Structures are given as structure tokens and as C-alpha cells.
UniProtKB/TrEMBL annotation:
Species for this entry: Salvia divinorum (Maria pastora)
GO molecular function terms attached to this record: hydrolase activity
Record keyword Hydrolase present: yes
Gene3D superfamilies: SGNH hydrolase (3.40.50.1110)
Name under which the protein is recorded: GDSL esterase/lipase-like protein
Signal sequence residues: 1-25
Length: 374
């Protein structure tokens, strides 16, 4: 018995070595390949929450079952395979996935290929996600980038560091869903906020905070930004299950709030494009993109856009989060949703493709490949 568990520990170490070693040759960093600095929530978390005392965790099976770089073991990603951030980085030719900021080995020249600050449960507002006890909210993610920023200065020297950030680095921000799902719409925790703030005031609060956060990143030499709007959060299996909706229905209040925020986000990014010299802010219309995939799921090769692949409870397996004892579907690529909250790798691939090469419907004023080549 003891021998066997020892063997398992050794095997686990070997597997994690393989994963950490992926593309990580410390000495021959090629600065022309570019970097991704990724901010956001569980949609793009690549393992930060593994290092937090939190109720929001994805380092449990079967998460990551289709993630090749880890051999299918969980990494802390809240999906079966790659996140949108991973896919975009790969497509842009970055030699490795952006490393989680909190991982002990995210040090030295490895950070020059990018760092990931995203955290499951995190939001634009500080109070968002407090039901999970711990998470990195956007203010803290920017504080952490400020630490990375100084490390880059040390590695490259001030002038080359500035150039590298201005020209070869893409800053992606995927945040806002939790401010609604795990703050404003939460019956118990947010009672105060919801009673004292109407939707307009709450959304304005979000936009004002985000303006400050994006401006801080700009002051730290970020220039090429892509900011995702909030997706149709009324259509996720969790919302559909607890509201006992029909297959093709979505909950209207969460979607209305998302659209209200999205309209103001688009204006904000336009203002920042005009007011912050040398910057480009691309607006990623994730809402319309995901809605299109959900509405016409069969056209994209999916068998369902309502039922979670991994989860339990109710008609859409949308109550109990994905974990070792969950029911899991056998055709993971045919589900738009991996779990009650998050898209599958197959859906992430479709979304990433549009952000990279799509037209003004889904990304404006330019797409990611054009942003990279600026
Ligand atoms: C992390 O880095 C240390 C020091 O470079 C190394 O000894 C260790 O094996 C690394 N850990 C992993 C999991 O790669
Ligand atoms: C949010 O929390 C951080 C860290 O605790 C703090 O530095 C920041 O001032 C807070 N922001 C606001 C708007 O309260
Ligand atoms: C970055 O950190 C320094 C302190 O080390 C602070 O003076 C500066 O204001 C910070 N910058 C931003 C944009 O937060």
C-alpha cells in the first residue's frame, strides 16, 4: 500500500514536471514571439486559485481531462481543455501558455512569454466573489502586474522593457460576469447592494472601476488591449436549471444586465482609444458570439447548448459543480457547456477563432491578429 502511494506521488511529480517544462527553456527566450498578459475570472484562470484558500477551485478531476500539455490531469482550468486565453496565445505563436502569477515557478525569464493573473470568482468590484472566501479581484490583479512590470525592467532594462510591452505584448481582460452572478444577483450576500443600488448605478460603478483599472495598466506600459464583454449569463446551465426553463429559453434579468453593461463598456473603450495616446482597445463581443453558438448549436456540430457535460442536478445538470463524483457526458466536444458555468474546449475554440480572425460583428475596431501585428 505504502509503496503504491509512493509510486503515485512520483508519477504525479513526473507529470507536473512535464507540464512545467513545456516550452520553458529559460535561456533562449525569443522576444519576437510576443507575450500574453491575461486578466480575468474563471473563464481564463490557468491555476491561480490552486494557490488560494478558496471555495472556487478547479484542480480536481475531471477538469482538464482533454488538456494535452498536462496529460489530462487538472491544472486549475475551469474547463475540459484549453481556455480562450490558451488558444489565442497558441494561435499568435507564443511558445508557451501564460504562467499563473501565483505558481512558485513563475519567475525568471519565463515571465517574458506572459503571465496569467486571472482568478475564479474574481470581479471588477472588490466585493465580488466574497462567497468563495478568497479570489483575486481586478484591483489585485493589476497590483500583481505592477510586480511583474518591475521584474521585466530588471530582465530587459527599462528601455527594452517598455518597447517589449508596447509592441509585443497583448493584454486581455475577461471579467464582469461574477459582478452580476456572484454579487448583484446573489440574493443573500448582495441584499445591501441591491437595495441601495439600481442596475444603472451598479453598472456605472463597474465601468468606473474598470476605467481606473485599465488606465493603471496603461500607466504600466500596456498598449494593446482586448477587453471581453459579459456573455449571455442568463443562458448558462446553472441559471436555466434553477429557474426551470425550457431548452431554448434564457433568464432575462441576467442577460439584460449584461447587455446594459456591454453597451457602456463599448463606449468606455472608445473613450480610452481616443484619450490614451498610442493605445488600442479592442472590444470583444463575446455576448453575441456565444448567443450565436447557443442559438444555432447544431450548425456548429454540438448536440446540446443547454445541458452541462460535467455536473449534476435538474434538467441541465446545472446545480452541483463539476468534480470527481460528477456525472460526465461521453461526447465532450458536442456540449457547448463543460460545467454549469463554463464553456467546453470545443466552444472556446469557436470563440477564440472569431476573436483572432473575425469581423466587426464580434471584434472591433480590429481583430486580435491585426492587434498583434500593429
Ligand atoms: C520549480 O523550480 C525549482 C527551482 O528551479 C525546481 O527545482 C523545481 O523542480 C521546479 N518545480 C516544478 C514543479 O517544475
Ligand atoms: C480593493 O482592495 C484592494 C486590496 O485590498 C485595495 O487596495 C483597493 O483600494 C480596494 N479598492 C477599492 C475601490 O476599495
Ligand atoms: C506600482 O507600484 C509602485 C510602488 O512600487 C507605485 O508607486 C505605483 O503607483 C504603482 N503603479 C500603479 C499603476 O499601480
Amino acid at each position: 500500500m505504502a509503496l503504491r502511494s509512493h509510486y503515485i506521488v512520483v508519477l504525479a511529480l513526473l507529470l507536473s514536471e512535464t507540464w512545467i517544462e513545456y516550452g520553458n527553456s529559460q535561456d533562449d527566450i525569443d522576444l519576437t514571439k510576443g507575450a500574453s498578459f491575461i486578466f480575468g475570472d474563471s473563464l481564463v484562470d490557468a491555476g491561480n486559485n490552486n494557490y488560494l484558500q478558496t471555495l472556487s477551485k478547479a484542480d480536481i478531476t475531471p477538469n482538464g481531462i482533454d488538456f494535452k500539455a498536462s496529460g489530462g490531469t487538472p491544472t486549475g482550468r475551469y474547463t475540459n481543455g484549453r481556455t480562450i486565453g490558451d488558444i489565442v496565445g497558441e494561435e499568435l505563436g507564443e511558445p508557451r501558455y501564460a504562467l499563473p502569477f501565483l505558481a512558485p515557478n513563475t519567475t525568471g525569464r519565463a515571465i517574458l512569454y506572459g503571465v496569467n493573473y486571472a482568478s475564479g470568482g474574481g470581479g471588477i468590484l472588490n466585493a465580488t466573489g466574497s462567497i468563495f472566501v478568497n479570489r483575486l479581484s481586478m484591483d489585485i490583479q493589476v497590483d500583481y502586474f505592477n510586480i511583474t512590470r518591475k521584474q521585466i525592467d530588471k530582465l530587459l532594462g527599462a528601455s527594452e522593457a517598455r518597447d517589449y510591452l508596447h509592441k509585443n505584448s497583448i493584454f486581455s481582460i475577461t471579467i464582469g460576469s461574477n459582478d452580476f452572478l456572484n454579487n448583484y444577483l446573489l440574493p443573500v450576500v448582495s441584499m445591501g447592494a441591491r437595495i441601495s443600488q439600481n442596475p444603472d448605478t451598479f453598472v456605472d460603478d463597474m465601468i468606473n472601476h474598470l476605467r481606473t483599472q485599465l488606465t493603471r495598466l496603461y500607466r504600466l506600459d500596456a498598449r494593446k488591449f482586448i477587453v471581453g464583454n459579459v456573455g449571455p449569463i442568463g443562458c448558462i446551465p446553472y441559471q436555466k436549471t434553477i429557474n426551470q426553463l425550457k431548452e431554448n429559453e434564457c433568464v432575462s434579468l441576467p442577460n439584460k444586465l449584461a447587455q446594459q453593461y456591454n453597451a457602456k463598456l463599448k463606449d468606455l473603450l472608445q473613450q480610452l482609444n481616443e484619450n490614451l495616446p498610442g493605445s488600442t482597445f479592442a472590444y470583444a463581443n463575446v455576448y453575441d458570439l456565444v448567443m450565436e453558438v447557443i442559438t444555432n448549436y447544431a450548425k456548429y456540430g454540438f448536440s446540446t447548448a443547454s445541458k452541462a457535460c460535467c455536473g449534476d442536478g435538474g434538467q441541465y445538470a446545472g446545480v452541483i459543480p463539476c468534480g470527481p463524483t460528477s456525472t460526465m457526458c461521453s461526447d465532450r466536444d458536442k456540449h457547448v457547456f463543460w460545467d454549469p458555468y463554463h464553456p467546453s474546449q470545443a466552444a472556446n475554440l469557436l470563440i477564440a477563432k472569431q476573436l483572432l480572425d473575425g469581423d466587426q460583428r464580434y471584434i472591433s475596431p480590429i481583430n486580435l491578429r491585426q492587434l498583434r501585428d500593429l
